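Model it.
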Amino acid sequence: MQRPFRQVDVFTSTPYGGNPLAVVLDADGLTDEEMQRFAHWTNLSETTFLLPPADPRADYRVRIFTTTSELPFAGHPTLGTCHAWLEAGGVPRDSRTVVQECGAGLIRVRGDDRGDLAFAAPPLLRSGPVDETLLTGLAAALGIARDDVVDAEWADNGPGWVALLLRDADAVLALRPGRVPVDVGVAGPHPAGSPYAYELRAFCPHDGGTTEDPVTGSLNASVAQWLLRTGRVTAPYTVSQGTALGRAGRVRITAEGDDVWVGGSVATRVSGHVSL
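Modeled.
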């Protein structure tokens, strides 16, 4: 069956500078195995599949697959899928907010004051201190001393992140990790006067080694919640990610009341049909 398809570039205004996402716009009738097989074939960090919502409050339902498994939530797939749905003619029930249904529940997405999209950060599934044994192992895997870690917390909103804070952005960019044992995000502040408040990198274990994600919405969401709560930053601010990979990821964080919004630019790079 020929199904409408998009491949989009998320969290960048520089062509091919963000994080790519494959979106199957009509996944009705596909089995779990068929979705997983296609996601494995695209070989992207995530591939999403659009379905009619099961919750009457939602505008659409999305399933998010990595090359090996399904995720309850991920950030760049949320913005990229919403962009593709709107571009394909999707009309939200509320003209101001799109409601996405996913494994983590209902996620709100809206346009921001720059014409980009932003999602409301979901609640954390796990937070709090990191076990010292794990923290020491993470530091060793990243090639740094334990004392180089200024602070650390669990920042899990679905993928399972541990977040580490280093002294500055240069220390983050200098990392040359070995094999990390868990998904880990590392942040460091840029100097005063920089257009970016923080530099972020995301490392995940993969096939016996470590892979780096170019731009990571879920990690930016949970790290923003941590940094704002601890008073290390004030919103709005912009994060740079992907620099070490030659990308130009830019994530804008805003806050309204208890809501933290994670936004950025999205553009379609490939449009057509896929046989599934």
